[in-house]
């Protein structure tokens, strides 16, 4: 305590002292018969003043604490009341509460259609009066194969006989070879003799249009298929667990190899081509005959996805030539390609990203030359819907055509087969979903945005003023507190490329309060994932925000429809997940909205999003403070072959290791909850368990939720509750309500 003392002698001979102190903020005076007594009295005054100050400060602190407690109690986050409101939102803001919102269109004929609405009553289910049958089940022994699964690859061994164009003959597989006979089975002949169990002919036999040739691929299957195994711990059918087996190829595994072969039916002459142009197959599609009955066309996707060819095999010479060849230093996005033959199979419409943007090209089949680029510009063709040769039109969807609009909005367009007359049939600046009649002369179009209610109109392809059929009325949900998410844009890591996303707020949002931020992530790659249509309720974000969070979602670099360079950031680099862009975007949002507390940011996701959310706290734990990750493909060597080799390449190299959450698990310093379904038939559950193993070995604290009997899942209502509690505890710093207490209020 700094004290300044003034001592003076009074007229009566006594002395008085005066002090000034910065802490007490004023003056104290005392008197005494002598200087020493005056000083002593002053010291006593100072001591009393200090005690009084401490009492006043303590009282002030208590009052402030009480006031703060009252304020927090009045506007607390993560309370039982918040949970109750969150639980009510799916019903309160259900699509059925919005009148005039068209859910579907059914064209009866070219001029008659039926509109379906979300508000339509649900169809009544017929109730059976029969008692359910009681079935006796027995304990199953040994691994049980799941029913045919989308992961299983067709070995093309089995198929019905294929009739010739004139229906006089059939071709079929017998003893692994190609046979032909009359329709009645007479005059059976083997066209091939070299088919064996390990190199057999495909049952997908193709006759040439003139019936002169048949074509089939000779197949060399993989020597050994990979399987994953699931233990169903609590089956409904029996007491004991069941072991399931499922075909599941993983990155680096051997691939089936095919050789298209042609057989002349009359003479038995075999045309077996050299495979130099298709020797290292990830896959080979086809073959199919062109109209000339001489050319067999097939598509070759090279292992590693850096080369994609459309090849033509000549039935007379046996030579193979390239009609179209796409190459890339990173990957050719084969899942996005489109090809259609026109003008008697003399030309092909082809989709390509060769100029960085997904566009349409016209290819001459005979020469392989590009005749014309049909669409061009810094925008993308999304999907070809229909090719009308008679009218000379291509119908397609596109994004990014308008520079002052969300680049992800889908528009319906036409362009001539000569590349002229590009038209946007749906010009409103919104996201469009249209259904055409059979002749493609009319379309019913519903357009909306995340913050704009849907409008449904009838349009004609020839133009003219659209006829409004319905307008969604959102007044009912607005009266119950519904608020649209905010469309927010901010530059990504490069400081210039805009990232587009959404900000969700609770219905009782108060800008004077501070809110933790949670990002919902699914970064693919392969698509864009932020909702662009109007939604009355979002299952991933709405209820979570209602607990007292700001929830965000955005598409960052590594996702689709912003040009190939934007997407190929992901190449051999799935650990990137656009996280530098996401961090920059959230920081920009928080700069505009200070109530977004970026010292308390969480993240969650499922599948690829499960991998990405865990990766966020492992490699960006300075920003992301907690993660919930469901069924993540945490190590790309453990996940399905097609997804991972597309983005991570082949052969498997060190980039797979660098992107592995298993390899980076030792970096964990933030709260993490892992969730997995024990029967996940999309991502091998072992992918999660290997992360668990690495975390245990590294001595890391984390939470694990294993759901018996569940497949690829975010956890359903149970997982959602666990996710809510996890973020309330770790981002709000409060204990969530007891589950039993919440059930009492249901």
Through-space gap between termini: 59 Å
The low-pLDDT segments are: 1-7, 20-29, 58-74, 125-140
The mean pLDDT is 90
Coarse morphology:
globular
Strand order of the largest sheet: 34-35-37-36-38-39-40-41
Number of strands: 41
Q: Report helical residue fraction.
A: 10-25%
How would a crystallographer describe the biggest sheet?
8 strands, mixed
**Classification by helices and strands:** alpha+beta
What can you tell me about this protein's structure?
It is built from twelve helices and 41 strands. It is of the alpha+beta class. The chain has an eight-stranded mixed beta sheet with strand order 34-35-37-36-38-39-40-41, with helices on both faces. Strands 11, 12, 13, 16 and 17 form a five-stranded antiparallel beta sheet that branches. The protein is globular, with a radius of gyration of 35 Å.
